Amino acid sequence: MVFWILVAGLVAAVTLAITRPLMRPSSPPADAGDADIAVYKDQLKEIAADEARGALGVAEAESARAEIGRRILRAAEGSSRPEPSSRAAGQNRFIKTVSIATSIALPLASLGLYLLYGMPGLPGQPLSDRLATATDSNKPNDLIAKVEERLREHPEDGMGWDVIAPVYYATGQYAGAATAYQNAIRLIGETPRRLQGFANARIHLENGIVPEDARKALERVLQIDPNATEPRIWLALSKEQDGRLQEAAADYRKLIDEAPEHAPWRKALEDRLANLGKDTGGTPASGQANAAPAAPAATPSAGNPDAAAIMSMSPEERQAFITRMVEGLAARLKSDGSDAEGWVKLIRAYQVLGRRDDAVKALTDARANLKDNEVGLAKVDSLARQLGLGS
Fold it and tell me: How far is residue 85's CA from residue 99's CA, in Å, rounded to a whole number?
């Protein structure tokens, strides 16, 4: 009841504020004759003052007074104010009518709209509940769905693809991230960030193996920014995966030489270089034995570590990651065995991990799946000869 009393008072105050100026009678316009008479009277006073000072003679003063007197008479004849015209009266009636109608219509319209759209019986809601509701309506999946809907309507919106690509990547949707980065690059151009994002998505989609399109993207990053570290690490890993151990060792050595003293991945690269030295019969980089202690290992973000994060893992963590990577590649090739490059990488990975029996089995499976692919089969046979896995 108190609510409706307050509403009635508010409506009355607003209505009064709006209609009061309309109801106020308008002031009659000033009469031009009265204004002229006032001016003439002032002129008479000036004539009297000039005569007293001797500036005007008696005859001149009298002549001036006579002329001003005639003007006063003419002004007085036209100064009688007529009654308001019928048009003016009609205007006044119209204003009053509008005022009355407004004073009635405004409250009724306001009340009707409030009853239609308002909710006077809705209980109060604490701020914490309102914030929780707002948070629920902005869940990541809801926001992603909104962007996806817009991109379906406007597939040429390069900025939209650029915005959603890292979101896909962060949520583990690597296929979507790779596609989004590709579209952004196609529509609004290459940048190191977009190229690196595409490469990372493709690498994680391949369970850590660096595919050809990712390698090309990483090389393009280095063309734009030759000092970028992450693409160089991935490319060194790619060479190691391909069995180009001497080249990989040279890349690791250069990265170590250029790395800041406390780079979190420096010690991991030194360990990796030492392992490659054993594999190739070489020796570690000079000065490696006196390398500084490893910095604390960085914790990679769940599910999608970058190259620097992999290098900064402890040996046990890195071995577990590589094992998961290889197992993921094996599972993919089991469902689709037509990827010759994938078989080469898997066989090489098994050999590097010391799992010779698995390498031999993968070689057999590769030959069975690639029997109709002469080029792919030739690559696998060449690798088998290099690794001494038999003809």
Answer: 21
| The two structure tokens encoding residue 144 | 């992603």
pLDDT at res. 201: 94
Q: Amino acid identity of 70?
A: R
How many residues does this entry show for the chain? 391
Residue 116 burial (CB < 10 Å; 0-12/13-18/19+)? Answer: exposed
Kindly state the tokens that stand for 4.
């409706």
Distance CA 150, CA 273 (A): 48
Using alpha carbons only, give the angle 293, 308, 170 rounded to the nearest 5 degrees.
140
Termini Cα distance of the chain: 96
State which amino acid sits at residue 229: T
Half-sphere exposure of 348 (CA within 13 A, CB side): 23
**Residue 68 dihedral angles phi and psi, to the nearest 5°:** -70, -35
pLDDT at 297 (0 to 100) = 33
Tell me: pLDDT of 291 over 60. Answer: no
User: Which tokens belong to 127?
Assistant: 């701020």
Where b means 16+ CB within 10 Å and e means fewer, 206-243 reads: bbbbbbeebbebbebbeeeeeeebbbbbbbbbbbbbbb
Q: What is the DSSP secondary structure assignment for residue 300, as one 8-state letter?
A: P
With a threshold of 0.90, does the pTM exceed it?
A: no
pLDDT tens per residue across span 339-355: 888 898 888 888 877 88
Residue ranges in the chain assigned as alpha helix (H): 2-23, 32-53, 58-77, 86-117, 127-137, 140-153, 158-170, 174-188, 192-205, 212-224, 230-241, 245-258, 266-280, 307-311, 315-335, 340-352, 356-369, 374-387
CA 319 to centroid of chain Cα atoms: 38
Q: What is the pLDDT of residue 64?
A: 73
pLDDT of residue 288: 38
